[in-house]
Amino acid sequence: MEDLNTAKQRTHKLMLTNRRTCTISGVSDVLSFDIKEVLLETDQGMLMIKGGDLHVSRLTLDKGEVDIDGKIDSLTYSEVTGYGGKGESLFSRLFK
């Protein structure tokens, strides 16, 4: 039982270089992305990245890794518990 909890909880790491390149690990899901905003579900909560000309350059959900390039203006975390269960749609989780 202890191994299941350890496997589920990966290490969450965020490395930002010159506000242009961001490497993130511990990502469970990419909920949405466009050139102004990327919304990620991480093991430490929801992560919203805002900026300009944002691109998801590498996405490996098996390993839980995402690379984002562009001008990064803000990184905002919020708790996962406020967004409901996995069975809900993206919009119902975002607009609660």
Automatic annotation (TrEMBL):
Protein name (Swiss-Prot/TrEMBL): Sporulation protein YabP
Signal peptide: none
InterPro entries from the UniProt entry: Spore_YabP, Spore_YabP/YqfC, YabP_sf
Pfam families: YabP
NCBIfam families: spore_yabP
Taxonomic superkingdom: Bacteria
Gene (UniProt): yabP
